[in-house]
Amino acid sequence: MSIDQTDVVDFIVTDPKTGEVFLAISDHLPWDEDARMHMYLLQEKVKAYLRFFESGEIYETCPAAKGKPLIIEVLGKYPMTREAEAFFKRVADALHSDGYKIWFRHSPAS
User: Fold this and answer.
1) What are the φ and ψ backbone dihedral angles of 65, each rounded to 5 degrees?
2) Average pLDDT, the chain
3) Residue 58 and which of 9, 15, 84, 95 are 20 to 30 A apart at CA?
């Protein structure tokens, strides 16, 4: 599973210490080539995750998520460009206003 499979949740992990539920997006694409397509795919993937949250499907798939903070974590193989960082900040701000968190972690092994 990866960012280009926009209708699939890649991974769900619960932090046993904090109880936070992390829904990971595996992002293997570079940011320096077709950045617009990359941003579009990320946007569509995030929308799918939001549908997963808002439909309640998250609680059917992961009952332990009830009442826990939901965090989308993008695991990027490549570091973001400035343009990508600006885009990601807009996405993060929009999600924050809806009560969700999202962050990016450069993870070269992803």
Assistant:
1) -80, -15
2) 92
3) 84
Q: Is 21 exposed, middle or buried (0-12, 13-18, 19+ CB in 10 A)?
A: buried
Residue 99 forms part of a structural domain: yes
Residue 32 banded pLDDT, cuts 50, 70, 90: confident
Instruction: Evaluate whether residue 102 is within a structural domain.
Output: yes
Beta carbons within 10 angstroms of residue 63's beta carbon: 8
Strand partners, 73: 24, 103
* DSSP designation for 105: E
Longest dimension (CA), the chain: 40
pLDDT tens readout for residues 34-74? 889 999 999 999 999 999 999 999 999 999 899 999 999 99
pLDDT at 1: 73
Backbone angles phi, psi at 57, to 5 degrees: -60, -30
Q: Which two tokens stand for residue 28?
A: 């293997």
Is the residue at 49 inside a domain? yes
Structural domain contains residue 78: yes
Segment 14-35 shows an average pLDDT of 91
